[in-house]
Specification:
Number of domains: 2
Radius of gyration: 25 Å
Bound molecules: iron/sulfur cluster
Distance between the termini: 49 Å
Number of strands: 12
Strand content: 15-25%
Number of helices: 14
Order of helices and strands: EEEHEEEHEHHHHHEEEHHHHEEHHH
Largest sheet: 6 strands, mixed
Helix content: 40-55%
């Protein structure tokens, strides 16, 4: 007899043969194993290739991408990448060396220096603070946020404002490029995008940008409306509330007049600052496009904010992360989409693309007959 076992938290399947449960390695038997996905299940069929041929089929629940890629939270920019191609997001986790190479290339070509110059312009006295723990690193972001709230209340421009919170059961983190008060008193969120071409983006690219600023608004508004909860923040970020700051961060916090010395105390302080601030929700969402090599303005676009539509879109994206649906790749038959694959580092090895190409060829030959 053949029996099989699987750990439902791991894609690795272990197989034992015989009544004594000896492992295959000991028996040195040859075995065929086929693994297929059916809905939310991974179905493995093992076939023993010895004299007494026997087969066993085993089904285990598939892991969601959140579990599989050990994600406790998402960055807003990850949603934008997802709006481009979900298969590419998956490859980014499976082939991290290729993603790192692409990120290095895009950091050079996406005008990272324009962003940095702007940040330094808004904060010329920026200091480097040495961080020792994850709590230190996140605390530094919260300290920056606490520092920016009075500036926002006074109607001043702030840059690199951290936003965080739970949307549809998933914890998000992001950083807003720019918030300022318009002449008519509206609070405007503006996101700077640099482009290698001196032209406004294609709708497929602009879609991700609009999604990004829309999600920023949802997060920012819920923060200033007091929806953020201490326990949620600690739970999703897996941070220790009693962790004391490292010495450099402690001196930095003291210099700014902050009394908090542990991460939990800082979170409490930030929630008080947000809950008692008079900062209003964002009124207007803007995208600013600049030419990356010259820094010249290409154009500005205002983004419509339709909360119901945005939440429906967000739920669909999150259905992928929760494993409630399969990832979607580029529709290679759509001329408005197919060009994305030509700029993709995974083009050569992409199974989605090659299987769609085959389908197109089969369809084409059927029609020809
Ligand atoms: Fe997505 Fe196309 Fe890249 Fe495949 S080749 S990951 S479908 S963009």
């Amino acid at each position: 007899s053949l029996s099989a076992g699987a750990d439902q938290h791991s894609p690795t399947l272990g197989v034992c043969v015989g009544d004594d449960g000896q492992s295959l390695a000991k028996k040195e038997e040859r075995i065929n194993c086929q693994i297929k996905k059916r809905g939310h299940m991974v179905v493995a069929t093992f076939e023993r290739l010895s004299n007494s041929r026997s087969t066993v089929t085993l089904s285990v629940p598939d892991q969601s991408p959140m579990e599989r890629f050990s994600k406790h939270h998402l960055n807003v920019t990850q949603l934008c990448e997802q709006s481009w191609c979900e298969i590419k997001v998956v490859y980014g986790f499976l082939k991290p060396h290729m993603k790192r190479r692409e990120m290095r290339r895009t950091a050079v070509t996406t005008g990272a220096s324009i962003h940095l110059a702007r940040e330094l312009e808004a904060n010329p006295d920026a200091l480097t603070v040495v961080v020792h723990t994850r709590e230190d690193r996140e605390a530094l972001k919260l300290i920056n946020l606490i520092q920016m709230v009075p500036a926002l209340e006074a109607g001043q421009l702030v840059r690199e404002f951290p936003v965080l919170g739970v949307l549809d059961g998933v914890f998000f983190l992001g950083v807003v490029d720019e918030l300022y008060c318009s002449k008519s008193g509206e609070l405007v969120l503006s996101e700077l995008k640099t482009r290698s071409h001196n032209s406004l983006p294609h709708p497929a690219q602009a879609k991700g940008h609009s999604l990004q600023v829309g999600v920023y608004k949802l997060l920012f508004d819920s923060m200033v409306q007091g929806s953020m909860k201490r326990d949620q923040l600690l739970h999703y970020l897996k941070l220790r509330p009693h962790q004391a700051f490292g010495s450099a961060l402690q001196s930095y916090a003291q210099k700014l007049g902050l009394l908090a010395v542990t991460f939990g105390e800082l979170v409490d302080h930030m929630l008080v600052v947000l809950n008692f601030s008079n900062v209003q929700p964002i009124d207007k969402l803007c995208l600013e496009y600049r030419h990356q090599s010259s820094g010249v303005l290409i154009g500005n676009r205002e983004v419509e904010f339709e909360e119901t539509l945005l939440m429906a879109e967000l739920r669909d994206y999150l259905a992928f992360w929760r494993g409630e649906r399969e990832p979607h790749g580029v529709d290679i038959e759509d001329i408005e989409e197919a060009w994305k694959c030509r700029m993709c580092p995974y083009e050569e090895s992409c199974e989605w693309r090659s299987s769609r190409l085959q389908e197109v060829m089969v369809d084409g030959s059927k029609k020809a007959k």
